[in-house]
Amino acid sequence: MLMTDIIAKKRDGKVLSDSEINFMIDNYTKGIIPDYQMSSMCMAILLKGMTREETLAMTKAMMDSGDKINLDTIEGITADKHSTGGVGDKTSLVLCPLVASCGIKIAKMSGRGLGHTGGTLDKLESFNGYSTSITEEEFLNNVRGIGISITGQTAEIDPADKKLYALRDVTGTVPSIPLIVSSIMSKKLAAGADIIVLDVKTGSGAFMKTQENAEELAQELVSIGKMAGKKTVAVISDMDEPLGFCVGNALEVKEAIKVLKGESCGHVLELVLELGSCILTEAGLAEDHESAKQLLQSHIDNGSALNKLADLVEAQGGNREQVYNEELLPKSTFSIPVYSSQKGYVKHIDTEGIGLISMHLGGGRQTKDDIIDLSVGLVLNKKVGDYIEENELIGTIYANSEVKGRAAAGELLKSYEIVAEKVEAGTFIKKIIK
Known about the structure:
There is one protein chain. This protein is of the alpha/beta class. The chain has three domains: 3-49, Transferase, Pyrimidine Nucleoside Phosphorylase, Chain C (Transferase, Pyrimidine Nucleoside Phosphorylase, Chain A, domain 3, Up-down Bundle), CATH 1.20.970.10; 78-324, Pyrimidine Nucleoside Phosphorylase, Chain A, domain 2 (3-Layer(aba) Sandwich), CATH 3.40.1030.10; 332-419, Alpha-Beta Complex (Aldehyde Oxidoreductase, domain 3), CATH 3.90.1170.30. 47% of the residues lie in helices and 16% in strands. The chain is built from 17 helices and 13 strands. The strands form three sheets. Strands 3-2-1-4-5-13 form a six-stranded mixed beta sheet, sandwiched between helices. α5 (91-101) links the parallel β1 and β2. The chain is globular, with a radius of gyration of 22 Å. The mean pLDDT is 95.
């Protein structure tokens, strides 16, 4: 085969065969096909699209480009979760131990934050000594022993995606749905879980800005998962404002712990119960969503979910006492309160802007190699639909540089749009796709 012929075929809107897709992915991963040819192919896919059969073939070819995790030796039902990214998204920190406390085995490989979106691995490193780079044997032993492990993806898993993702990032081809789907699902399928639940974000702080685009992506993700033989569900949730009240690694860990203690509810708990009930019903542990939510809530109420988080932290080298005492988690030097300059109702929060504030404080990465400050970020006191008085507290900046903190305070104030007319908050859970 010739790559030029395959590029021309897709350029003309024709359907590629499985063998052509396998040839393309295999030889690109090996370095035989150069970046400039794969860039051309990515643009052709962006413009001409792919059938589901083509997307499935590409997903499988990427999955087969490296090692796969074999979970066959794990007794019981295994589950994995993926989020398309957002601001203040600490869902995995609550969902994974909660579902594991109900008897589902959680075998999860997570990523780091990049740009305005946070990463689960960064948050977990707020626990002193927590290792995100354990061996596959340790990973499997933790899943067997305590029912949960969350670690980073090894270099040997899905190397095709690493190369393609970097290429798409610099060639304007990130928004292609087939390329997004194959990127996400190749990693999830390589991880080997029986059930895959997907949290697809939509709104100003998400990569999918409109619900229509989010639904299209969610439907394709679910279809590819099912075609690959996995129980797959997607929940579309709102990202027009940050999830919860805290943005920043250790701050988000504290909020997650509060949810697991039953001290905080709101959208974080709502989303966790929705995603968790999808897992429990797919696993056959609950007859319907309502009974599944009741079971999940009972494991928050009796403390078993919080204890499971402590078990996870300890098993991967961290200090379990930090789960029970938030004062032991990283703390910033400065806390700067931010007050409203007007009264009225919160109509809009610049969600991406909030994420960038945390990043510029030192709590995020612009490149994967940046060193982050786990203690910085911000806590919001007001969300969309809330009424606020003039000079009332909007939020607090946590920083280790007073200059950066003061600058962030000004940016936080500008992130809020306040109007005189009453504002109704929108629906948070937009849709469930099975």
